[in-house]
Each structure stands twice: as structure tokens, then as C-alpha cells.
Amino acid sequence: MSLETTFFFQDHSHDFIQFLNQKKYSKIFLLADSHTNGFCLPLLKQLIPEFCYSCLIVIPAGEAHKNIDVCQLIWNALLLQKADKHSVLVNVGGGMVSDIGAFAASTYKRGIDFVNIPTTLLAMVDASFGGKNGIDFDDTKNAIGSFTNPSAVYFNTHFLKTLPNSVLRSGIAEILKHSLLDSIGALDETLDLDINDFFQARSYRKSIAFKSAIVQIDPHDEGIRQSLNLGHSIGHALESFMLYAPKPLLHGEAVLLGLIYELMISHLIFQLPIEIVQKVIAFKDRIFADLKCPFDYIDIEKFIGNDKKNRGEIRMSLLEAPGTGRWQVPVSVQQLKTAITETKQFLAK
Ligand code: GLY
Q1: Which end of the chain is more exposed for a tag (fewer CB within 10 A), N or C?
Q2: CA 229 / ligand 1 centre spacing (Å)
Q3: Is residue 297 part of a domain?
Q4: 328 phi and psi, to 5 degrees?
Q5: Is the pLDDT of residue 28 over 90?
Q6: Is residue 167 part of a domain?
Q7: Can you give the CATH number for the domain in which 145 is found?
Q8: Within a domain: residue 76?
Q9: Is the pLDDT of residue 307 over 80?
């Protein structure tokens, strides 16, 4: 099992092949979901011919399947096909596949190597590295899991071409979040980008470098890494609130809205300049013009205090200024209600 992760970008596919060869894995297992099996594996096998000879494990797509039953399916397949300590599991997909695949690999025979190949922008800039893995259990997201690093991550934007537009742009919110936490320069640069610029190496590689630097400082999420939860307290609450709506919110859409509301709370608590909130709203109107989610405090009340990081009270990761994140900030119900009302006025303009 790996302590360090090696990153390979699409212009260095050959190095990735060499890495796999040098590892002399006894068997390579590919884990795909029902989407990536059809859309991404044919392309992957063209790019990395070594994968033509691997054993395939396919799981159902969707966050609802990130559970112990599907994990058991992966363990069974590994056992049945005689995976040993020197085998590797290659997770091909979005965050759901890398979360469950990494968890299954890190527990199988006390841990075998795994490699992540993210196929969504969201997974490229966030879930595919940093060591967090897990499954949902008993209605709690990521209730069971561990910190275990992939041996390698292989990034290739060609996979993104297989995605519907809404899923494609969903990763933009995480890139925006990273630039808010990085610096005013990074933020202004991101806010100026056109939608297609986000899929270019320069933009997503900067985002990956930013998150990697934070993870290096705080691999176990005990301090500064929690700043990466910016936008996620309200984002997760909105995602849960909308779960059974005719058009549920995608994770990235919920995080974008969560960012806007949490920047307004940051304005109320830390005097974050209101111009930052306005600029991010203008960005949302340009890139996510169709994204609307009218809600009141009462709609998210039962989800907001429910965050596992909050220990029963409302604590959030906020932004004191661009480049200065704060975490575990107590937020009163009144502050939250005021921020929701004020943000709705700005959003309506
Ligand atoms: N997604 C935030 C983290 O990896 O800590």
C-alpha cells in the first residue's frame, strides 16, 4: 500500500505505463461503474494498452450504490479472481467509484495498491487524491472509511468528452472554491475564465496543485484541510433538501450555491468584502445561468446541524478574505437566516 501518490497527466501517458510495468503487479483489476464501463473503458484501453489484459469489475453507477453491499461485491470479485497482496485495483470513474474502490482496496487483505483514473472534472480536482475514501452507512455519508493514498492518479481530459454538459461543468465549483482559498489573484483569474477554459490543463492543474499543498500540510483533516469544506455545509444541506425534487441538484451545483451563501455569512462575520459575493454571483449567472434553487432556512434546518463535522452545533468553514480560510467557525441560527435573506435579494437582482 502506498504512502505517496504519483500524478500522471495526459501528456505523460507513457510514464504512467512505465510506472505500471515497474510495479510488476501480479494482476490488474479495473473497477468501473455502469457508465464508465461503456463510455470510458474503450478509450482507456486505447490510451493504456496494458489494461486490455485486466480483470473487470463493474458496479452500478450513482451515489446511492456507495454502500456495503456494493463494497462486498467488489471484495467477492477480488477473491473469486484470486487477487493477492501484489494486485492493483484501478478505479475508473467519478468520486463514487474512487471512494468505494479505494475503500475496498485499502481493506482487502489488509490493503492492496490502488490507482485512480478520474473521469469527471469534479473527481479530477478533488475526490481522486488526498486519501479520503469510504462508503455511506446507515443514512450517513462516508460513515465508514479511512485515509489511504492511491499509488497513482492518471488525469486525462479526453474522458470528460463522454459527459453530459451539466455533469461536465459540475466540477467548476470546486475549482472556484480552491481559487477563493488560494488568493485574490487566483480568484480573479478563475472568475474571468470561459466555460471551456476550465477543461484546459492550466486551470485544473492549478486547482490540483492547490489542494495537494493543503493535503500535504494536513493529511488527516485536523486543521487547515477543513478549510476545503467551504461551501459544503450549505451545499450538502441543499443537496439533501433537493434529493427527491423532480430535478435534484448535482453535487457541484449545490456547492456553487453553498459557496455563495457561505460567502455572505463570511461577509456578516468577517466583513469579507461584499464585492466578492457579488462577483461570484455574477460568475454563477454567466456559467450556471439556469441554476436556481429558491429555499428558506426552514427547508435546510434539519440538514444543516446534521453535518458530521459540527458535533450538533452549527460550525462552518468560511472565508475571512481571499486566500484566508477559517474553519470550525460557530454560526448562529440568526446569522444563517440573515445571510439567506440577504443572499436571496442579491440573487434575484
Ligand atoms: N474534499 C475535501 C478534502 O479532500 O479534504
Answers
A1: C
A2: 7
A3: yes
A4: 55, 40
A5: yes
A6: no
A7: 3.40.50.1970
A8: yes
A9: no
Q: Over 70: is that where the pLDDT of 309 sits? A: no
Residue environment code for 129-164, b if the CB has 16+ CB neighbours within 10 A, otherwise e: bbbbbbbbeeeebeebbeebbbbbbbbbeebbebbe
State yes or no: pLDDT of 294 exceeds 90.
no
Which residue puts its alpha carbon closest to atom 3 of ligand 1? 228
Residues with Cβ within 8 Å of 285's Cβ and at least 6 positions away in sequence, in order, are none
Quote the CA–CA distance of 307 and 309 in Å, as a whole number: 5
Residue that is written with C-alpha cell 443514512 in the block: 139
Q: Determine the structural domain holding residue 40 and report its residue range.
A: 6-161
Q: What percent of the chain has pLDDT over 70?
A: 97
- On the question of pLDDT at 1 being above 80, the answer is no
Among the candidates 110, 139, 161, a domain finishes at 161
Mark whether 137 and 273 lie in a shared domain: no
- pLDDT for residue 140: 87
Question: How remote is the CA of residue 82 from the centroid of ligand 1, in Å?
Answer: 33
The grid cell for 162 is 463522454
Pick the residue whose CA is nearest to atom 1 on ligand 1.
Answer: 126
Q: Three cell numbers at 124? A: 479530477
Q: Is the C-beta atom of 251 inside 6 A of ligand 1?
A: no
- CATH number assigned to the domain comprising residue 240: 1.20.1090.10
Report whether residue 130 contacts ligand 1, using a CB cutoff of 6 Å: yes
**pTM (2 decimals)?**
0.94
- Let me know whether 10 and 148 are in one domain: yes
The protein residue with its alpha carbon nearest to ligand 1, atom 2, reads 228
CA 226 – ligand 1 centroid, Å: 8
Centroid of ligand 1 to alpha carbon of 177 (angstroms): 11
Q: Does one domain contain both 143 and 248? A: no
Closest-CA residue, ligand 1 atom 4, reads: 130
Same structural domain, 155 and 228: no
Q: Average pLDDT of 48-69?
A: 96
Please indicate, yes or no, if residue 242 is contained in any of the structural domains. Answer: yes
